[in-house]
Design a protein that fits this description.
Layout (H helix, E strand, L loop, with lengths): L1 E7 L6 H13 L4 E6 L15 H15 L2 E2 L2 H5 L5 H11 L4 E7 H6 L6 H7 E6 L6 H15 L3 E3 L9 H6 L7 H9 L5
Parallel strand pairs: 1-2, 1-4, 2-3, 4-5, 5-6
The structure holds adenosine-5'-triphosphate (ATP).
C-alpha cells in the first residue's frame, strides 16, 4: 500500500493544504493519506493568540473530512519538538510492508537539506513536493536534483494546480480560502484576534 504523510502546523488548515493533499494523492496514486499536525515545529515560532493544540487537531480533522483522509496525533502526543525524522521512523516501523511518501510545499523542500537527519527521512520515504507559487516550478527541479545528489533520496515534483494561500494569510486577514467548517470554528471560538 502507498501511504502519504502530510505534516504541518495547520494553524489553521486552508484550501492550499487541501488542494495540495488531493493533488499529491492523485499524482502518486496514494491508497491512504495521513495528516500529522505538529506539536512544536522545529522551524517556526507559533504566533501569539494562536490556536492551541486541541483546536489545531480539531481543525485538522475538519480538513481531513474535506479531503477524505485520516489524521494522526502522534506528534502532539510525543511532546517536545516535532522532528519529521522521528515521525517517519515510527510510521516506517508501524507499516513495514508499505511505501511511505512525505508531502511538502516548496518552502519545505528548499530547506530540506538543513532538517534534522534528512538522510534518515529519505531512507524510509519518497518526498512528494508541491509548488506554492507558479514561479517556483523551475526551482523545484533544482532542489530535487540537489537533494537526490547530496542525500541520495527520491523526490517527486507534482504538477499541481497552485493555490497561493498560507495560514498566515488566514490568521491576519479574512480569506475565503478556508473550508466553511473551519471558518465557522475560527469565528465561533474567536481565534486569531
Ligand atoms: P504559516 O503561514 O503559519 O507559516 P503554512 O501556510 O506554511 O503556515 P503549514 O501548516 O506550516 O502552513 O504547512 C504545512 C505543509 O503544507 C508545508 O509542507 C507547506 O509547504 C505546505 N503548504 C502550505 N500551504 C500550501 C499551499 N498553498 N500549497 C502547497 N503546499 C502548501
Amino acid at each position: 500500500m502507498k501511504i502519504g504523510i502530510f505534516g504541518g502546523t495547520f494553524n489553521p488548515p486552508h484550501m492550499g493544504h487541501i488542494e495540495a493533499a488531493k493533488s499529491a494523492m492523485q499524482a502518486a496514486n496514494l491508497d491512504r493519506l495521513i495528516l500529522v499536525p505538529s506539536n512544536i515545529p522545529p522551524h517556526k515560532v507559533l504566533p501569539e493568540n494562536t490556536a492551541n493544540n486541541e483546536q489545531r487537531l480539531l481543525m485538522t480533522h475538519m480538513a481531513a473530512e474535506e479531503i477524505g483522509c485520516e489524521v494522526s496525533a502522534i506528534e502532539l502526543m510525543r511532546e517536545g519538538k516535532s522532528y519529521t525524522k522521528d515521525t517517519i521512523a515510527f510510521l516506517a516501523h508501524k507499516y513495514p510492508d508499505d511505501s511511505l511518501y512525505f508531502i511538502m510545499g516548496t518552502d519545505m523542500l528548499r530547506t530540506f537539506e538543513n532538517w534534522y537527519c534528512p538522510e534518515e527521512i529519505l531512507k524510509h520515504c519518497t518526498l512528494l513536493a508541491l509548488c506554492r507559487t507558479a514561479s517556483e516550478r523551475e526551482n523545484m527541479l533544482v532542489y530535487k536534483k540537489n537533494i537526490e545528489e547530496h542525500l541520495g533520496g527520491n523526490v517527486i515534483v507534482v504538477e499541481n494546480e497552485v493555490l497561493e494561500v498560507s495560514s498566515t494569510d488566514i490568521r491576519t486577514h479574512a480569506s475565503s480560502l478556508v473550508p466553511k467548517s473551519i471558518a465557522d470554528y475560527i469565528e465561533k471560538n474567536g481565534l486569531y484576534k
